[in-house]
Write a structure and sequence with these properties.
The complex is a heterodimer. By secondary structure, chain A is an alpha+beta fold. Helix content of chain A is about 20%, strand content about 35%. Chain A has eight helices and 21 strands. In chain A, strand 2 (about 15-20) and strand 3 (about 25-30) form a beta hairpin. Chain A is globular, with a radius of gyration of 20 Å. In chain A, about 50% of the residues are buried. Chain B is α+β, with helices and mostly antiparallel strands. Chain B is built from four helices and nine strands; from the N terminus they run E-E-E-H-E-E-E-E-E-H-H-E-H. In chain B, strands 1-2-3-9-8-5 form a six-stranded antiparallel β-sheet. A three-stranded antiparallel β-sheet of chain B has the order 4-6-7. The longest helix of chain B has 11 residues, at about 130-140. The chains are: A alpha+beta, B alpha+beta.
Chain lengths: ~375, ~140
């Protein structure tokens, strides 16, 4: 199991550490629900060094990635970031990722738990393309500042990039805490204004400390993966292994914005299968709200119109909505927002309602 | 067994027995009280009692087989089953817990009891004593 370069700081902050995707990660520093509220009302600092960071170079990098990922890499404007997936030929996701095309590279950020599988898949399909695939996970750490006051916290530490002009899902490079050429991206997994910073591993400890110090007057606190999961669920963002996995495709997950069927993109792995699903979807991902005492959990059956119609894929207590929430797959015709449903919690039924996603977002409105 | 250094005091009461799934059983007259250990509570909420969100306990009168699930405790991120280490009938349920989960964190040994069972057999199953449970916890870390 690996430790991130910020491990000692997590221990000092009193984090509860758990194994996640092969890494020892802070799941919480204090009560999880308080951490969610901190991010929604002030700001949170996240160590995301476990996520996979992969650099693709070589003259065929764009054509190669347009064959491998679902979004149209050649069409991504300079300075923009796009969400995409790696899918198998049957259209089922191997992972989801962010794609940052640069002048002489394409930078990818993938899930920790899938990094090894992704790299294997990438190498396996590189034949015939002039590309070089570099795993930069160990040399480049990753932290995120998320929350309404994140710009006030980060801006004083940054030179050479105007944060107020950096739009949602845009990135640039700047000097951060004196470190030149740091990738700064206005992305996150919380539904809040926020920035993700890619900092050389050797220097990330200092950057963490300086961000913590700059954030103290704004109520910034370190936030663990427990709260991060609730934040992303509230924001209607998918998590591999829940909304998407080897049996849950991106189309019915509502992720068509990350899938391009543009003719110019040419054939890509999974295209034919996903086009077929696009033509004839049978189910959809919906939100669930339940005022009952128990949170929906992955695998719980969902009932509507007197029969079992699907299953929960994610669930949590939501401090932001003051209710229990979840996501579930249900037949297309049954998932209309407002429809009454029930969740089967180990034999006991709890009433719920389907609702539209996201539950909450300041970035997507 | 080597004696513990005096600085390490035994955390757990020795008036009861312990299971590998972190329940405790305390004889009380003709009945037994069942609860969960501080370790179990800590696994669920790591000292953050606000992370405990729900406790599902059985109805009085329910008959339980040995090892049967009699309830569940839910924290923000996990759901844990409660198993009975004795077969018998539920004669009393600590309903306060359902509304005051913080009791589990503050006093898992006394106020935090969950159910009272009238055992089918006078003989209680072989379970760990406090020292055995502590050794079990120490061993499972390696």
């Amino acid at each position: 199991m690996k430790n991130t370069p910020l491990h000692d700081r997590h221990v000092r902050h009193g984090a509860r550490l758990v194994e996640f995707g092969g890494w020892q990660m802070p799941v919480q520093y204090g009560p999880i629900l308080d951490e969610v509220t901190t991010v929604r009302t002030r700001a949170g600092l996240f160590d995301l060094s476990h996520m996979g960071r992969v650099r693709v170079t070589g003259k065929d990098r764009v054509a190669y990635l347009d064959r491998l990922v679902t979004n149209h890499v050649a069409k991504i404007a300079p300075g923009s970031i796009r969400y995409a997936l790696f899918c198998r030929a049957d259209g089922m996701p191997i992972d989801d990722l962010l794609v940052y095309p640069g002048t002489d590279e394409v930078f990818l950020v993938v899930n920790a738990s899938n990094t090894a599988v992704d790299l294997e898949w990438m190498h396996e399909h590189a034949r015939g393309f002039e590309v070089r695939i570099q795993d930069q996970t160990d040399e480049l750490a990753m932290i995120a500042v998320q929350g309404q006051v994140s710009r006030e916290i980060v801006a004083p530490l940054v030179r050479g990039i105007e944060l107020e002009k950096l739009g949602y899902y845009k990135f640039g490079h700047g000097t951060v805490c004196g470190i030149p050429n740091v990738r700064i991206s206005r992305t996150g997994y919380t539904g809040e204004l926020g920035y993700e910073l890619y900092v050389p591993t050797a220097q990330v400890g200092r950057v963490w400390d300086e961000v913590m110090a700059a954030g103290a007057p704004h109520g910034l606190a370190p936030i663990g993966l427990g709260a991060r999961d609730t934040l992303r669920l509230e924001a209607g963002m998918p998590l591999y292994g829940h909304e998407i996995d080897a049996t849950h495709d991106p189309i019915q997950a509502g992720l068509s914005f990350g899938v391009s069927f543009a003719p110019e993109k040419g054939d890509w792995i999974g295209r034919t299968a996903l086009e077929a699903i696009q033509r004839a979807p049978t189910r959809r991902l919906v939100g669930l709200k339940t005022s009952g005492p128990r949170a929906p959990r992955q695998g719980y059956p969902v009932w509507a119109a007197g029969r079992e119609v699907g299953h929960v894929v994610s669930g949590s207590v939501s401090p932001t909505l003051s209710t229990n929430i979840g996501t579930a797959y249900v037949p297309l015709a049954l998932g209309e927002p407002g429809t009454a449903a029930e969740i089967d919690i180990k034999g006991k039924r709890q009433s719920a309602n389907f609702c539209a996603l996201p539950f909450f977002s300041r970035t997507r409105k | 067994m080597t004696p513990q250094p005096s600085s390490v005091r035994s955390m757990r009461p020795d008036d009861r027995r312990y299971t590998e799934s972190h329940e405790w059983v305390k004889p009380d007259g003709e009945t037994v009280l069942i609860g969960i250990t501080d370790f179990a509570v800590n696994e669920l909420c790591n000292g953050n009692e606000g992370d405990l969100v729900y406790c599902d306990l059985p109805e009085v009168g329910r008959a339980l087989d040995l090892g049967e699930t009699f309830g569940e405790i839910e924290s923000v991120k996990a759901v844990s089953d409660l198993f009975t280490p004795v077969a018998g009938e539920i004669v009393e349920v600590n309903t306060t817990i359902e509304d005051h989960l913080e009791v589990l964190s503050k006093d898992p040994w006394n106020q935090g009891w969950l159910v009272r069972i009238r055992p089918n057999s006078k003989e209680l199953p072989k379970l760990m004593d406090a020292a055995g449970y502590e050794k079990f916890l120490a061993d499972r870390k390696h």
